[in-house]
Structure formats: structure tokens, C-alpha cells
Design a protein that fits this description.
This protein is α+β, with helices and mostly antiparallel strands. It contains 14 helices and 12 strands.
Length: 433
């Protein structure tokens, strides 16, 4: 979608910086450079249930991916990155084949496991071409582009892979005069994640990035694909979003990976459906009637019982959270966020010691309504909703307490960006010159 107005992100300085780099790469004037702004997302409630058809909530923040580009005038793609070295070149005429992630990377348990980033960052562009062409779209025009994420936010657990995928989709569509709805692009980014990279994640990330509206809470039924935007009520206290980084850029876990947990949810669903005489239904937990769950859950194996309990309790928290948001009760909304974080630890069994400590520190910080991991808590950050008036105090408290708890990791962080105060943002958009 084309931006009619811009909020605090991206700033003119950020846009102009990207435009100048692309202008030099392409040998064209700055005024011809187009920019896709694709924001990161947070998931206050609904963690790890999108792949089971659950109901989730989300919003975007004023940080994200910027992709500056110009149509190349031929079929060639040439890309550079602000985060990774090297240059990516390929032709849109090449047949793109799926590139399933290596088994090793499945074990990291993040919200979106990634291929080996330093050498393979260009595969997201190839994945976008794959997704569009696999559904019959004619892609004849390449792009010359430069992609960069907000400083310090890489490996953060804020859906950077979906933000990158969406940015390439919007760029290739614009260069090839293709008009797609947000719903269509949700499906195309799902193809990048599920088919091209072989991940078994749901549609939460790309839905939030493509559907969100500034200040609204996005609610998505991942079974029916229906969504609604819930406006901020007048009674809602002024809040900010804290993003607190752990310093962990690589996952520290020997726990089963993301795809393994998805499989366990499906095993639990299969058992519950068979027990209730619905063995012909697709084995996802959204197809299990809550009464059947209550009746047969005691017969589930311990691991499967935990996964199912997270799904059903998280669905309830989402519904209660939407009610609290609608009523302007951000205190109750925050309590539900923290309860979601606890269930992610105890029932979905994700998180590592540094992220758990960061989660606990945030809950003790002044003015914080609620906190949780962003992603699966094996690297990256935690997010919290905080009273606007106390946001600076909370950020200072978290920096000091985390330094005491994890001095080695905390010292790897830039003090100014270890805890970032963010605001709600808009959906992904194309910023024309």
C-alpha cells in the first residue's frame, strides 16, 4: 500500500539515507528511488497459537525494515544490505526452488527460524520471486536495492524475517506493476516462510505487518483468516512500548526447536480429536472443542498436555485481553500479557535463563503494565507495555538490573539502545519519491 501520511517512522533522515545509497548503486537521481517501510511487530497476546488456528493480537512498532529500490530496467536483481556483507545478484528469469532450513537451525526455537544469515540473506528476495511466480504472476522486471533494519534490532524476535519478506514482495510488485491486497500479500509471505524456507509457522507476523493501523490492536482469527482492528478507547492510559534486549544474538538452547513444538501441538490435537470421535478433522488444536479438551486432557502425555494447555489458556487470554483493551483497562491487559509470558515458559517450554531474568526484571520496573518474550525467548528481547510518564524510569531500571544479572551480555549492548522506548506504528507501505 502507498503511504498517505507518515508517523514517527521512518524519519526523513532515514529515508534520505537509503535513497542516497540506492542512487549511487543505480547511477540514478535520488528523486527516483522508492522505499518500502516494513515495520516490526509485537504480539501482546496470542503467542505460539497462530499455527494451530488460534486467535491472536498484534500491533506494529516504529522500527523496522527499509528497502530502497529502483526498477532495474531489465530482469537483473542487484542488492546490498546494511547488516550483512556481500552483494546479491540474480535474474528474475531463474527458476527459484525451495530452500528448506538446515536441521541445525530448527533447534533455535525462535519465532521465525532463519537460514544462515550472513551468507544467505539474499534468499528472502529469491523467496519473494518464488512466491509471486508460483501463483502465476509475471515477474519480468528486477530491482536494484539496498535493505537495512533499525539499528540493534536484528535477531530481536520481532518478526524481522516477515518484515523482510513483505518488503521484497512490495518492491517486486511495484516494479512489475502488480496490485495486491494486504490479504494476498499475507498469503505470498506465507509461501516464502512455509514453502520456500520450509518453516511451519502461522500467519501472525505478516498479518500484523500488513494489516495494522496506528494505535489500534489487530485481532486475527488464524483459522478463518478474519481480522478486525480495535481502536484505542478514550479511557486508555497513555502508554509506550519498551523493547529490552538480552544481548543474545545466537540461540542458547538444547530444547526441541520450533517445528518440533508445532508437531507436538498437532499430536495433542490428533489424540483429542480421536478421543472425541472427530478423527477425520485436521489435527490442529482449533478444531478441538473446549469441552472435549476438558474431558480428555487428563489422558494426554505430559509434553502434549503442556502444549495443549498453552493453546487453550492463551486463546482465553486473548479474548479477555480484547475485552480489557476495549474497556480501556490497560492494567488488566498488562496482567494478561505477563500471564501469557509465564505460560510460554511453563507450558510451551521456551525461553533461556537470560531472557527469563529480563522478563522478571521488566515486571518489577516502575510503570510496567505487563511483559513477555518477543519470540520464543532463546535470543533477542522482551517487550513490555509501560505508562508513558514512567517509560524513561523503567528503561533506566531495566538497564541497571539486567547489568547486575547478566554483566557479560549486558556489556555487549550499546547502553543507549539496550532498552528502546517505542510507539505503535502503521502497516507496511510504499513511500514514493
Amino acid at each position: 500500500m502507498e503511504a498517505e501520511k507518515r508517523l514517527s517512522w521512518p524519519s526523513e533522515n532515514e529515508l534520505n539515507g537509503v535513497r542516497k545509497i540506492v542512487s549511487a548503486m543505480a547511477g540514478t537521481c535520488v528523486e527516483q528511488v522508492r522505499v518500502v517501510a516494513s515495520p516490526y511487530r509485537i504480539c501482546p497476546l496470542g503467542a505460539h497459537i497462530d499455527h494451530q488456528g488460534g486467535t491472536v493480537s498484534a500491533m506494529t512498532i516504529n522500527k523496522g525494515i527499509l528497502l530502497g529500490f529502483v526498477p532495474s530496467g531489465n530482469n537483473e536483481v542487484m542488492l546490498r544490505s546494511g547488516q550483512f556483507s556481500g552483494e546479491v545478484r540474480f535474474s528474475v528469469d531463474e527458476v527459484q526452488h525451495p530452500r528448506p532450513i538446515r536441521k541445525k537451525s530448527e533447534s533455535n526455537g525462535t519465532d521465525s527460524p532463519k537460514p544462515q544469515e550472513d551468507s544467505n540473506w539474499g534468499h528472502f528476495a529469491r523467496g519473494a520471486v518464488y512466491a509471486l511466480q508460483s501463483r502465476g504472476n509475471s515477474i519480468t522486471q528486477g530491482i536494484t536495492g539496498y535493505i537495512s533494519g533499525s539499528e540493534g534490532f536484528d535477531s530481536s524476535g520481532l518478526s524481522s524475517s516477515a518484515a523482510v519478506g513483505v518488503s521484497y514482495l512490495l518492491a517486486f510488485e511495484n516494479a512489475n506493476n502488480l496490485t495486491m491486497s494486504p490479504t494476498e500479500n499475507i498469503e505470498y509471505d506465507r509461501l516464502i516462510e512455509n514453502e520456500y524456507f520450509g518453516l511451519r509457522n502461522g500467519i501472525l507476523d505478516q498479518s500484523a505487518i500488513l494489516l495494522s493501523r496506528h494505535g489500534y490492536l489487530t485481532c486475527m482469527n488464524c483459522k478463518t483468516k478474519e481480522h478486525k482492528l480495535i481502536p484505542p478507547p478514550n479511557l486508555l492510559k497513555s502508554y509506550k512500548i519498551l523493547v529490552a534486549f538480552s544481548g543474545l544474538r545466537n540461540a542458547l538452547t538444547s530444547s526441541p526447536g520450533y517445528n518440533r513444538r508445532v508437531a507436538e501441538c498437532q499430536e495433542a490435537a490428533r489424540f483429542l480429536l480421536n478421543s472425541s470421535g472427530n478423527e477425520n478433522m485436521e489435527p490442529v488444536l482449533c478444531n478441538v472443542d473446549p469441552d472435549s479438551y476438558d474431558k480428555y486432557k487428563c489422558n494426554l502425555e505430559p509434553n502434549l498436555a503442556k502444549r495443549a494447555e498453552h493453546f487453550f489458556s492463551e486463546n482465553r487470554r486473548v479474548i479477555k485481553g480484547l475485552e480489557a483493551w476495549t474497556c480501556g483497562d490497560i492494567e488488566e491487559f498488562g496482567k494478561l500479557i505477563s500471564a501469557s509470558g509465564l505460560s510460554s515458559i511453563e507450558n510451551y517450554e521456551c525461553g533461556c535463563e537470560p531472557l527469563k531474568q529480563l522478563y522478571e526484571i521488566l515486571q518489577r520496573a516502575p510503570g510496567v503494565f505487563g511483559a513477555r518474550f518477543s519470540g520464543a525467548g532463546f535470543r533477542g528481547c522482551c517487550v513490555a507495555f509501560v505508562d508513558s510518564k514512567l517509560a524513561e524510569d523503567a528503561a533506566c531500571f531495566v538497564r541497571e538490573e539486567y547489568l547486575k544479572a547478566q554483566p557479560d551480555l549486558a556489556n555487549q549492548l550499546n547502553l543507549d539502545s539496550a532498552v528502546v522506548i517505542c510507539e505503535a506504528a502503521d502497516s507496511a507501505c510504499l513511500v514514493l519519491p
